[in-house]
Amino acid sequence: MPHRYVAYPNQVLSGSEYGSGQVSIPTDENQRKKKPPMPITAGKVSQFAGRTARELMVDTLWPLASTGPMKESRERLRLLRASYRGQPALVIGNGPSINGQNLGKMPNFVTIAANAFFLKSDSVGVSPMFLTVEDPLPAEDNKERLKAYSGATKIAPWDLRGIFGDNSEYIYCNFQRTYAPFVAGRFPLYSDDFSRRAYWGGTVLYMNIQLASYLGCNPIYLIGVDLSYQIPSSAKVEGNIITSTEDDPNHFDATYFGAGKRWHLPETERMQRCIYSAYEHLRQRGVSLINATDGGNLQGLPRADFNTL
Question: How many domains, in total, are found in the chain?
Answer without folding.
Answer: 1
